[in-house]
Amino acid sequence: METPWRIFEETQPIKLYAKNQMIYLQEETAIRFYYLKKGRVKIFLSSPDGLEKTLAVLQPGSLFGEASFFDGKPRVSSAKTLEKSEILSIDRTGLEHCFRQDPQLAFHLLRHLSGTIRMLSAQVDSMAFLQADARLAQLLLSLAEDNRVPLTHEELAGLAAVSRITVSRILSRWARQGWIATGYREVLLYHPQALARIVPHQTLY
């Protein structure tokens, strides 16, 4: 499927990353942003006492690290791979070259940044106002592609800001009801309409 980021694949070098390899660290200066061609990447916050909060688990085709790149401020999160990955990095010189090749790229980046802001706003609303089952339902619906969410229970727990035990308990209940099925590192949505009824309409991404 054609994506607006194809210009990056055509013009920028690919770097291979091992599983659990750091890509960038919270608080460092951003001199480039990234495009995930293959693999999975976790975006997370770290507290001074070593605790982590997962913000996103990215799939191939995702841009990341772009906010700090554009505003020139230190990174507010860290990124590391969850499996072997192929990642392109884009610095200012590379981006200017891409703009010359594809003037529409600037519009696509603005739309992408707007979507990211909307998603983060919805996450804040979710954590502030929704119960655990509604948070998890919202998360599954927002991440599903072809009714499939390729995440583990632990990864879902981090994204929904609930415990892994809570995620497993809720998913087991939904599986018994025939709404979902769980497999190796994935959740299949058999009845997304039922999940949607759990989530207040205005909170869906």
Primary descriptors:
205 residues, Jelly Rolls, four-stranded antiparallel beta sheet, 2 domains, Arc Repressor Mutant, subunit A, 11 strands
CATH topology type of the largest domain: Jelly Rolls
Alpha carbon gyration radius: 18 Å
Query: Per the principal axes of the C-alpha atoms, what is the gross shape?
Result: globular
Number of helices in the DSSP assignment? 8
CATH architecture of the largest domain: Sandwich
* Number of separate strands: 11
Order of strands, main sheet, comes to 1-8-3-6
Order of helices and strands: HEEEEEEHEEHHHEHHEEH
Rounded to the nearest angstrom, the distance between the terminal CA atoms is: 23 Å
Low-confidence stretches: none
Structural class by SSE content? alpha+beta
- Main sheet specs: 4 strands, antiparallel
The overall pLDDT average reads: 90
Strand-residue proportion: 15-25%
Q: How many domains?
A: 2
What name goes with the CATH superfamily of the largest domain?
A: Jelly Rolls
Helix content: 40-55%
Pfam family, one: cNMP_binding
Keywords: DNA-binding, Transcription, Transcription regulation
InterPro entries: cNMP-bd_dom, cNMP-bd_dom_sf, Env_Response_Regulators, HTH_CRP, RmlC-like_jellyroll, WH_DNA-bd_sf
Protein name: Crp/Fnr family transcriptional regulator
List the helices and strands and how they pair.
Layout: H1 6-11, E1 14-17, E2 22-24, E3 32-38, E4 41-46, E5 52-58, E6 63-64, H2 66-71, E7 78-81, E8 85-91, H3 92-101, H4 105-129, H5 132-143, E9 148-149, H6 153-160, H7 164-176, E10 180-183, E11 186-189, H8 192-198
Antiparallel strand pairs: 1-8, 2-7, 3-6, 3-8, 4-5, 4-7, 9-11, 10-11
Helix pairs in contact: 5-6, 5-8, 6-7
GO molecular function: DNA binding; DNA-binding transcription factor activity
Keywords: DNA-binding, Transcription, Transcription regulation
Protein name: Crp/Fnr family transcriptional regulator
